[in-house]
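Action item from last week, closing it out:
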Amino acid sequence: MRRKKVVEPERSVSARVVQAAAMLLAIAALGITADMPLAAAGSAIVVAAGYRMSYAGMDKRRRPPGQLLIGTLLGVLVVYLIADLFGGYFGGDLPQAHFAIYAAAVTSFDIKSRRNCFSHIWHSLTILYIAGLFAWSGLFMFVVIAWGACVVLFYSATRPGAGLRRPQLRSPGAARARTALALWLVTAILTFIALPELSGRPIAVPLLVGVPVAGHGGEALPPALPLVGSDAPANSIDLRARGRFGDEVAFHVRSASPSYWRAYSLVNYTGTQWTRGLNIDRHVPGIAGGDLEPGDEEPRPSDPLLNQTFSITSNLPADLLGAYPMKTVDFASPTLTESYDGSVQTPSGLTPGTTYGVVSRVRDTSPQRLRAVGQVLPDTISYTYLDLPSSVTEQTRNLGRTLVRTGTTEYDSVLAVQAYLQSRYIYDLDTPRLNPNADAVDQFLFTDGRGFCEQFASALAVLLRSDGIPARVAVGYATGEYDRITGSY
């Protein structure tokens, strides 16, 4: 019969101190980046107390009641994670992050051997990784470096023969560790600087009009300022309004690919403004939401998916931003409202500090496929996007008919209208005010000859509708500036 192997407790004070420092550093980082200071502070206090008790009782045998208590608490945490992740029963506020730090607090009371210490080192790495998901500043790299230094010191303090002695920082082993760490840092920094930025491609339909914009990563975006925006209420765009762009950052988004961050669409044109009109809404779960599909979309099982994480920094309307079309959303609310056009609304507006996730379908919008599909939408849906008011002049309607009929396919007709607008009109923020009783598109096309996003988008939609091609106006944000340090837009 084999004798049970006796596991020696980890007696190095230095090792336990730096191991605790690594865990507390990771918890503090998560509390800051994920904006959960109370949960992080409470867990840190419990972890520190647990480590102290573990060291004081490292020579005592584990007893069944204590093991049962720890196991029960971990089981309760698993139930909490599942209930909050899929049902939002506890508010749905970052259940994975809370689970990670609470589990660290529970298990901190049973750290005896070197293996236990190693387990908590890797547990702290998991927490640090979660913190990194919410880190939107390059300063986070210093937290990672500090955590790495703790790990190096831990290895040095737990080498054979270290015991209760202080780590011999001038020993050959410690020197090799310092050399390896320095080489790793230098190599990582040089590699990051030297590697070229991979080109990305926007996944939104490139049939959008504006002015040329700078390319991303060496690959040009479609020549457009694709989405319009306004300070008007989040149900309309008033074409009589004039203004300037602000320089305030609205949000950050971490995504594997650039896209257009769409909020909602506008359907009804009145001659002076666009409105959303009536929508068929349904309630959807906000936590690990079920499938979201716009009413006029035909999803393809072969479409790849794009994951996005949004961090809001300004007060925004209640419509969730995301690449179109959204498939699922993870938002800290029991219920959300999905509209027929694929937009998703929260119970209240988006406020600074709000974080949520979106999974979107990446549609095949290649010219070959768009030419092959023929008519974009079924007749039962097209009528919704064809209506024009009486203010649209016959001159505007005739221009639309002439341009649309130059194309051999519906896709080529849209390209013809887009090329006409881009070649003949000037993007200008100093647009003359709309004349009384004038139709906004008519004045843009035949009087002003210049305008900003709203005028270009409105003209494209009205000209297409003039000859039976359904169109609507999308509201949201263009790709934005890419930050290589944080990997966000």
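Closing note: The longest helix spans residues 64-87.
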